[in-house]
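Hi V.,

Quick status before I head out on leave. The structure for the redesign project is tokenized and pasted below; the design run finished overnight.
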């Protein structure tokens, strides 16, 4: 939806993000992950734009991209939970191999510009993205521990 409609999809993507949060079985954890993870992810993406690894039609990135990141973060404890169960180095490999593909798809839809040769982008951006996302996974595990400890102290 984001790649096809770009800014025209903002309302629909925002509605999906709100729905994901409302239906979350771990709403407090997901809310905190959304806040902290979005800060990490958008800081990383800003740096990548500044380093000319990618570009967008609006600077530094459009609202639909922020909303897309929000939706992705809300899948960490559900459909992407398998990544949290892998040893960190395998999670890095999986992310480094597959995450750049979504950006390449965005470039094919002409909503993202990849300003480097594709092999260099895949190598550098993929590895950087993988390390950044694994930091988010680490933060999520700390958040889960925090809420688990808080629930145990109430008993």
């Amino acid at each position: 939806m984001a790649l096809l409609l770009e800014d025209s999809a903002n309302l629909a993507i925002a509605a999906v993000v709100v729905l994901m949060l409302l239906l979350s079985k771990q709403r407090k954890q997901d809310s905190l992950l959304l806040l902290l993870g979005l800060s990490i992810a958008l800081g990383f993406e800003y740096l990548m734009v500044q380093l000319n690894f990618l570009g967008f039609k609006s600077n530094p990135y459009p609202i639909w991209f922020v909303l897309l990141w929000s939706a992705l973060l809300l899948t960490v404890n559900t459909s992407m939970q398998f990544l949290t169960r892998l040893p960190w180095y395998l999670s890095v490999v999986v992310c480094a191999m597959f995450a750049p593909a979504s950006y390449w798809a965005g470039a094919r839809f002409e909503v993202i510009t990849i300003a480097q040769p594709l092999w260099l982008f895949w190598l550098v951006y993929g590895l950087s993205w993988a390390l950044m996302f694994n930091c988010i996974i680490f933060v999520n595990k700390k958040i889960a521990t925090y809420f688990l400890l808080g629930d145990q102290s109430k008993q």
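Above is the designed sequence. The chain is about 75% helix and 5% strand.

G. will cover questions while I'm gone.

Best,
W.
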